[in-house]
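Quick check before the chapter quiz. The format below is the same one you will see on the exam, so make sure you can read both the input and the output lines.
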Amino acid sequence: MSKRTKKGFSSRTLTFRIILGFFALFVVTAALSFSVVVSFEKYYPLDDEDSLLLFALVVLGISVILGVALSVLYTRLLINSTAPYVKALQKVRDCDFTVRVKETALFGDLKIADNFNNMVEQLASVETLRESFVSDFSHEFKTPIVSIEGFAKLLKDPNLSAEERNEYLDVILSESKRLVELSESVLMLTRLDSQKIVLEKYRLDEQLRQCVLLFDQSATEQGIELDLDLEEEIVVNGAINLNKQIWVNLLSNALKFTPTGGKISLSAHITNGRPTVVISDNGCGMDEETQKNIFNKFYQGDASRTTPGNGLGLSIVKKILDITQGQIYVDSIVGKGSTFTVVLKN
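Here is the expected output.
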């Protein structure tokens, strides 16, 4: 069965129109032949059957010739009408997404050009995102690799002290860990595109408690207070593992940007009939530009890159919420902290 677009075009419509055109030609030639025979017979009766048969064959031959001529003209009209689309498709095949086509007279009401132009615009957007992703991905991978190579060369110096050697090894280990985390994040983003969502009922408040426990030791070591408001029992029908990744990434992000002596608050409630989780910190906060781009792949508000991370954590959060029909909102003030609000599908 053909698939119909929002504008109403289908391949079945186009096929029907072509068949209808040739059928109309057949009817016209047949009617013309019949009218010629009837008119001639009316005014010039032929009593001889052989003469009548010969006359009918001649008229039939002329009709066939006329029908072929009309068919050729109609076919040429079809070719001329489809030629712009064929040329445009060839350009798209060669990755030229700037091409646009205009509606032709024969197919104007089918909105083929509109659908084609919309498709090319979407392909251009995807190509831009792909090029940006490859560029950012290459940069993020190159940085730790260059660092590892540089410190590995320094380790070949026989005059290094034990303290220097250990310092260089720590850098190599740190950069190696960064590469592993980057690889895992990229793989997760890739898997999410074809992730099969399995929904099951579970206690959201219990899941949040378990996620907080994962960061309890790190928070204690950094002198950061974790304040929980999870008194309400919340049962959701959701993707357990994917949702867990949301809370882990958001808590990790909050710890990353909250200074010693700071505070991270986490609460969960049913708001307007939907499970809502709010994670706040009193860290460095973000400006408006950072808030606009914070969910983009590899984007890091810390331009100096002094804060550890690869800029994929929040992208993963946004991707998970997109495929599970949830939403996330951010509210932040520079120097005062940030608040992330997650609304899950009920």
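If your answer matched, good. Residues 1-9 have pLDDT under 50 and may be disordered.
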